[in-house]
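Newbie here. two chains, one complex. Structure please?
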Amino acid sequence: CKKWVEYDPHDDFVITEIDYLKSEADYRALVVGVYSPLQWLNQVVPVSDIASDDAVSGGESAADVLSLQQIDDYTYYPVNATLADLWQVSYEGINRANYLHQYKEINLAGQTVNFAGKEALYGEVYFLRAWFYFTLVKMFGDVPLFTERRLTLSDSRKLARSSKAEVYKQIEQDLTAAIAVLPAVQSDKGRVTKYAAQALLGKVFLYQNKFTEAATMLENVITANAFALVSDFGSIFLQSGENGPESVFEIQYSNGQGTYDWNHVTRGQGNYAVQQCGIRGLNGSGNMPYASGWSTNLPTQNLARAFETGDQRKTVTILDIEAYKSANPSFNITYQAAPYKNTGLYNQKYLPRKGETSGQVELNYLNNYRTIRYADVLLMAAEANNRATAANDQKARTYLNLVRRRAFADQLHDITAGGTALYDAILNERRLELAMEGERFFDLVRTGRASTVLGALGFVAGKHEVFPIPQTEADGGLTQNNGY
Amino acid sequence: VKGKVNSKAGVPLEGATVSVKGENISVITGAGGIFSLSVPQKGSILVVSYMGFVSMEQKVSGTGEMYFVLEEVATSLKDVVVVGYGTQKVTKVSGAISTLKSAEIEKLKPVRVEEALQGNVAGVNVIQSGSPGAKPTVLIRGIPDLGGTDPTVIVDGIQQTLSDLNSINPGDIESVTVLKDAATTAIYGVKGGNGVIVITTKSGRKNQKTELNLNSSYSVQEVISTIPVLNATEYGAILNEGSTLSGGNIVFQDLSGLGAGTNWQKQIFKKAPIQNHNISARGGSEKITYFISAGYLSQGGIVGGYDKSRFNRLNFTSNVSFDLSSKLKFIVNATYLNLNSKGVQENAFNSIIGSALNYDPTVPVYNTVPNTIGQYGFSSIITREIYNPLTKLANTYNRLIGHKLYGKFELQYEVIKNLKLTARLGYTKYDGNAKSFDPLVFWGLNNTGNTLNADGTTIAGFHNSVTHDKSTASQLIYEGFANYNFQLANGHDFDITAGINLNKGIGNAAGASRQDVPYNSWEFADFTAATGTTANNNTNGLRGSYYQYVNRHASGFARLNYDYQDKYLVSFTGRRDGSYAFGTENKFGNFYSGSVGWVVTNEDFFKVGFINNLKVRGSYGAVGSDNNLDPKKVLVTIQTDYLSSLYGSGNSIGYTFGNTFYPGATVASVANNALKWEKQNQWNAGFDAAFLNNQLNLSADYFEKRTDGLLFTPVASGYLGTIPPPIANIGSTKSSGIDITAGFNTTITKDLRFTSSITFTKATNMVIKTSEDSSWVTGGNYFNGQSQSVTIFAPGKAPAAYYGYKTNGLFQTWDEISKSPTQTGAQPGDIKFADINGDGKIDAADRTIIGNPFPDFTMGLSVGVTYKNFDLSAFTYASVGNDVYRAFERNDNYTNKYRAVLGRWTGPGSTNDADHPRYSFTDANNNSRVSDRYVEDGSFVKIKNILLGYTLPSTPITKLFRSLRVYAQVKNVFTFTKYAGYDPEIANTGLLDTGIDRGAYPQARSYTIGLDIKF
C-alpha cells in the first residue's frame, strides 16, 4: 500500500529542480527567465508619468484603475494593486537571478557545468539583478536586500529593510561585475551589453549624487562611439526605429506570441501600457495609423506648453487629437473624448498603432520601451559634468546641445549658460527629451525639486518621494515608509 | 383463482406479488388490486407480498374469490438502509442519516437527483442552477472548507463525484441515503468530510414476474420574470442627464421618438421543451434477477432556446445478479450514457443575459442600416464589450458529446452462515468530445470588437477559429471486504465489517485549435476543413495541447456494530487512508468514530401509549477531506513551457530578443512536504420518534463540527516573488446546526389518504483561522467599470460572506460633506459611506460584512393527497436569510441601467436612500464600489412542484395494462421573494461565487404532461 500511494513526479512528466541545470542550454534558458520580469514592469513608466506634472490618469471614470487614479491625485495608500505588483515582480526578477547565482559553480546534483561564455552570461544576470533593485530603491527607498539564493516559504515575513545606501552598494557591485565580463556587442538585439551596464551604473551614480563617478562612467559609453543620435526624432518610436543606433538598452516587447490571458495582463510578450495610452473609440479610414485604446496616461497641457516653438519633439511626444483630426480630414476620424480628466492630448510616443498587436489586441502591442537612449546618456553626462567636483560646463554644454540640435534641427537653440543656469537647462531638457518615458517623477525627486513642482498637485514633501510599500509587506513585519 | 388485495385501510394494492408457495408461479396484481392465476391443486398456499406491508399466506380452499387484506408495517421502522459497505436496519442506526426512496423521487420527476434532495432531506442544502444539466451547489451540514464542498457520491458501492450525477437517470434510483455525521461517514475516511450521498439503483427480485414500466412526459419551460431595466425613452433621458451633469453634451437630442424601444430580455428568452422517456423492466427467477432500463432526456434551455442551450441524455442500464451457487453470487451493473449538450455564455456582464440587461434599448431588433451586413441591429453609442445579445447568440456555436460507461463487477461469497466476503471492481470511463467555433463577426459600425467589415470582408489580422477538445478519464476501484454478524445468547448482536480499498484514476485530454474555417461557417467548422497555419506574429493559427494525470489512494477500514436486545446500540468505525497527493511526511491518516443509541421504547418500563418509538442517539468522530490535492504541490518544479507558464500561474517565462522568441525557464513551484488532509471532528446528538400509531414521525439532530488543518494558500511576503505559495494545512472552521424531519401520514377514509413531510435545515458557519497572518481569500469577482470582488473567506467571518462598504444614506449638501468623515470625491447626491473604524476617513479599512449568500435556514414541505384514483402532491421550499448581490450592471456611461436609477437623487431632500444616488457619467465618489447598495434580501418561498395524477379505472382497454396513469405537473409554480431579479436561488461554479447575480441563468417554470404505464 505504501508503494501504491508514493508519488513520482516523472509519472506526470514533471521536470523537478534536481533534473535541471545540467547543460549549457538549461543555464541559458533560466537566464532568459530572468529577463521576463523586465516586461512585466511596464507600469513603472505610466506610474512615473502620472505621478509627475507631465500626465494625468484619465480613463473611463474616477474609479477606472483606482491604483493609477490615486497615484495621480497623491491619495495612494499602502493598498495599491499596481505598486504591489511592481514590488513583487521586481523581487521575482531578483529571486530568478539569485537562483542562477546560487547554482553558478555547482548544480543541485553536485556537478559543475562549464561552457564558453558562462561568465558573460552571468554578466547579464548581475545587470538584471541590479536593474530590479534599482527599480525597487527608486520607488520604495529602503528595501529588503538578499543576493545569495532564491528565497523559500520559510523566509516569508522574516526579512527587514536594508538602507538605500546598502542597496545602492549592491547595485554598484553587480553592475561593476557585469561590466567586467559583458561584451560590447551582443548578437541578439536587446541583450544586455557592457554599454548598457555602464549607462545604468552612470544613472545609479547620478541618483546618489555621485557626479564625478557618474561623469567618468558615462564618458565610457560616449567615447566608445558605439551610438549616435538619429536625425528624425519621431523615427525612434516607430517599429522600424526599435533597437536603432540610439538604443543603449531597450526592454523588448513583441506581438509574435499574441496571448489572450486577461488574468495575467502584463505577463506576455506584448506591451500592455500601449493600449492604455490609446484614444477611446477611435475610428477612421484605413490609412489612419492609430488604433483605439483607453485614454489613460494623458499628457498635460502643462507639458505641451513646455516645448519651445520649433521643437520637433512636441508633435512626436504629444498628439493633440483635434489638431490632428483637422490636419487630416481624409482620415475621417471619429473618437470619444476622454471621459475623465480629458486633456485632449495623447502620448504619441507610445500610442497604439494598427497592425502592431495580435491575439487579444489590448495585451500584445509590440512597442519596445526605449529604456536607455543615447540622448539620455548625453543628458546624464551633461548633468554629471555640470555637477562634478571638478565641474566641466564646456563638456556639459556640448552634450546638451547635441540633444538640442537634433530637436530643433539647427544650432540657433544652443544653450550658452553655465553653472546653475546650465543645470536648470539640462533638467528642463531631460523633461522634454524624455517626456512620457517614465523619467520625470524620479528626476524631480532625486534633484529635490519634486515638492516645488508638484506641491500644487498634492505632493507632500517628506512623504511622496517614495511610494508606500505594499500593506501585505507591512503586515509581514517591514516598516512602512514615512507618512503612510 | 381470482382475488383481490387491499390494504387494511381499504385501498386496493396494485403491484403486489401473489405467488404459490413452493412453486415457481406468481402474478402481480393489476389495477384495483385484482389478480388471477392458476394453482396446481386445491390446498396450495398463496403468499401475497407487497413492499411496506406484512406478507400474508392463505390456503386455497374453494373456488370463490380470495380476499387478502394486508397490514401496513411501520415503514420507517422496518426499513433497511444502505450504509457504507453494508446495510443496516433503521432501528439499529445510531448515526445521523436521511433516506429518500424511489417513490419520493418519482413524485418530483427531477432532471438531476439533487433536485429531489432539496428540501426533502434535512441537513442538505441544495442551491440549483437554471442552466440545463448544470451541477447545483450541494452542502451537507454547512461549509467545512474553502475549496471542494461537494459531498462524496457512492453509486452502488462505487465512488463517483457530484458532477457524475448528471449521468444517472433518477428513474433508475431505488434509494438515496445521505450520511451526515462522523459515525456514518468515517468509513469513507478522507472522503467523508463533506458528507456522503449513497445511491442504490434498482434491481430485480427473485421469482418476480417481469414488470415493465413505461414513462413518458413532455414539458414546456418559460422564464418566470424579467429584470426591470430602463425602456428607450427613460434610457435616453438618463443618459442626457448623466452626460450634462458631468459637463458633456446631450446624447439624445430628441427623446420623443424613442418610445419603449427593444426589451432585449424578451428577445433572448425562448420557450424550451423537455422530453423525458423511460422504459424499464425488472424481474427475476430463482437464480437470476435483473433490472434493465433505457431512458432519454432532452432539456432545452430558455436562454436562446433548444438550438443554443440544451442538455440531452441517453442512458442504458443493466443490473443483473446471478446465483452461481448457493454460496456464490455474481453481480454485474453496467450503465452506458450518451450526453449531448450545448451552452451559452453565462454569468457575466457580457454574457447573453448580461448583454440583454445592459444593451442599448433604442436599437431596433433587426438591422436597417444600409450597406451593412448583420441580421440584427446595433448601437452607435455602445461599441465595445456589450454586444447585441441576438448577434451574440447567433454567433454562439459549440457542442459537447460525452460517452460514459460505469458500473461494477462484484462477487459475494458466503463462507459460512452470516460471514460474507465481497470482492468488487468498480469502473467509470468517460470520453468527452467538445467542439466550439468562434466566427468572424460584424457587431456594428465602429464597434471595436469587429472582426468583419461592414461589407462582410475580413478585417486584416483577424481569423475565425475552431477548437476541439477530447478528454478521457477513467477510475478503477478495487474493494475487498467481509461482513460478519452473529448473535450471542441473551440478545447480544454483533455486526462486523472490515476491508480494503485501492483506487486509481487516470485521464488525459488533448485539444487542437485551428484558424480560417472556410466560409466562416459552423458547417465547415472542423480541424480538417480549416486552413490556418502558425506564423511568427500569429501563434494561434494552429495549436495543440495535451494534459494527463494519475492519482492513487489506498485504504483499510473496519466497523463494529453492536446492540443489546435492540435497546442499546453501539458502533465503532476506523479507517486508514493513504493518498499519493499527500506530502512525504504525511502519507497516511487515521480516522475514528463511534456512536451510541438507546431505544427507549424497547425498555419494559417505558409504556406510553401514544409513543410508538423513541430512540436517542449520539456520535463523535473524525473524518477528513483531501480537497483533490495536486501532488505537484510537494515538489520544486522547473517550468520550461512558455504557454503553460503564461496561461497557468502567470509566473511567466520567455523573452523576445529583437524578433526572436526564446521560451526560457524558471522555478515554478515551492514544495510543502507536510501537506496532508483536512481533519474534521464532529459530534452529533439526536432522536427519532414515532407517535400516534406510527402516523407521526419526528427526527431531529444537532451537530457541531470543527475542521482543522484546513487547506489554505498562505499569503507569502512579496519579496518571495511571484511563484504561487504552496497550499498548506493552516486554517480552521466551525459549523453547527440543526436538522429536523417530521412526517405525518394518515388514512382518513377508505378512499382518502394524506401524507406530508416537513424538513428544517440550519447550519451556521464560521472561519476560525486561515493563515498565520489571518490572510483572506476574496472571490465573487465581477466587473462594473472596475474589477470588483465581493465575497471573502476570512477569519472571524462566515465563509463566502459579502464584504464591502456600508452605506449611510446620501449626502444632501456640501455642508453635510464637510461635517462628515473625509470621503474623497464626494458631492451632494453621492452615497455617504459609513466610517466603520471611526478614524474620520472613508477608506478600505471601513469595509465590513454586508451580507451572506447562504440561508439562515431552509425548509421543505411536501404534501400528498390520494383520493380514489386521483393523486395530488405539492412541494414547497423556503430559504430564509440568503442575500443576493446584484452584479449584472456593467455601469458604463452608455449601458442600460437598473430601474432604481429612476428614483435617483435630484436635489437636497429628494431622497436619502443609498440605492438612489445622483446619476452622472463621472463618479468621483465611486458610488459603484462594493457596498450594501447592491445587496438584496434573497429569501424566498418557492412552490416548486404541483402534480396531479389520475390512474385510469379498470376498463376493457386499460386491461391491456397493469395500470395506466396520466399526470400534469407544474414546476417552479410561484416564487414569493423581495428580490427583483429573475431568481434569488443562484448557484455558481464556486463556493465564493454563490449568490452573485451577474445575470445568472434562471430556473424556468415548466408545464408537464406525462404518462406512466405498467405492463
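Moderator note: The mean pLDDT of chain B is 90. The longest helix of chain B spans residues 232-245. Thread marked as resolved.
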